[in-house]
Write a structure and sequence with these properties.
The chain has about 90 residues and is α+β, with helices and mostly antiparallel strands. It contains two helices and four strands. The protein has a four-stranded antiparallel β-sheet with strand order 2-1-3-4, covered by helices on one side. Strand 1 and strand 2 form a beta hairpin.
């Protein structure tokens, strides 16, 4: 397993009051396709925002190739390394 993207103890709270994600650990492998599914309000969009570097985690770290994405060039990261697609129905 070659981990390219990882969540380590990631949490996110809106306005410091409303927790949306808490203590999330997950590893994404290179070359695999992943789907994030769940009911409305479950934190899917928040999770994608964290993975893409558009939002900063309240807790924990999002790692790309072992480096915290907050400490790398996020423009390069978003334009060259990560992408999100939305299915059409």
């Amino acid at each position: 397993m070659i981990s390219i993207l990882a969540l380590e103890k990631v949490g996110y709270t809106y306005d410091g009051v409303s927790p949306v994600l808490k203590d999330i650990d997950y590893t994404f492998e290179k070359g695999k396709l992943y789907a994030i599914v769940g009911p409305s309000g479950a934190g899917k969009t928040t999770l994608l925002s964290l993975l893409s570097g558009l939002t900063t985690a309240s807790e924990g770290e999002v790692l790309f190739n072992g480096k915290n994405i907050q400490k790398i060039n996020r423009y390069d990261y978003r334009s060259q390394d990560v992408g999100c697609g939305f299915p059409t129905v």
